[in-house]
Design goal:
The protein is of the alpha/beta class and 196 residues long. The chain has 2 domains: 109 residues, Rossmann fold (3-Layer(aba) Sandwich); 80 residues, Rossmann fold, CATH 3.40.50.170. The chain is built from 7 helices and 7 strands. Helix 1 packs parallel to helix 7 and helix 6 crosses helix 7. It is globular, with a radius of gyration of 16 Å. Bound molecules: 5-O-phosphono-beta-D-ribofuranosylamine. 5-O-phosphono-beta-D-ribofuranosylamine binds next to helix 1, strand 5 and helix 7.
């Protein structure tokens, strides 16, 4: 059995897309994978309500309560590892989780830690990707699913989708177009990872 733990900080639309795909495609029956929990570092993350309404365990671990990044990551690791056991491993999915993770956290889940980034990596790692793509005069933008490594937004690429940039686009209109593709490629990439 593989236990998927999804980390969010906000709206959680990627998490919702993963949950819906897991249910539709019967990941539990087909791949022995279930979504064990959704954990947020923010109590008011809108995605928590969606998870609860789909009978998924939710937890809030508020990073502000911890004295350091390392202490928060340690607490997060301890909670995540509660979802692993001798006969089940854990896959950690970052879905709009707005925290930079420590090298210790990343090493602990090496190969089992995935992220989605709203740009065509290696272009535009970091924040404000859509505005930066517009400012650079790009004609296409997109999203990337990748394994997480110690260097921010730089791990091996698992999937990408490109969208056109259209005259008159704003960061918001471009983000919305990219997000629709994120919802397609993220569940697909996770399913592929689970099968391997
Ligand atoms: C997505 O664009 C994701 O790529 C980025 O943050 C956004 C999160 O959206 N990391 P949501 O919370 O999944 O709706």
């Amino acid at each position: 059995m593989k236990n998927i733990v999804i980390l969010i900080s906000g709206g959680g639309s990627n998490m919702a897309a993963i949950v819906k795909t897991a249910q539709r495609d019967d990941w539990a029956g087909q791949m022995g994978a279930r979504i064990a929990a959704v954990i947020s570092n923010k109590a008011d993350a809108a995605g928590l309500e969606f998870a609860r309404s789909h009978s998924i365990v939710t937890e809030v671990i508020d990073h502000k309560v911890y004295s350091s990044r390392a202490a928060f990551d340690e607490a997060l690791m301890q909670r995540i590892d509660c979802f692993a056991s001798s006969n089940s491993s854990v896959v950690v999915v970052l879905a709009g989780f707005m925290r930079i993770l420590t090298p210790a956290f990343v090493a602990h889940y090496a190969g089992c830690l995935v992220n989605i980034h709203p740009s065509l990596l290696p272009a535009f790692a970091g924040l404000h990707t859509h505005q930066r793509a517009l400012d650079a005069g790009c004609k296409v933008a997109g999203a990337t699913v990748h394994l997480v490594t110690a260097e921010l937004d730089h791990g091996p690429i698992l999937a990408q989708a490109a969208v056109p940039i259209i005259a008159g686009d704003t960061a918001d209109s471009l983000a919305a177009r990219v997000l629709t593709q994120e919802h397609l490629i993220y569940p697909r990439a996770i399913a592929k990872l689970l099968q391997n």
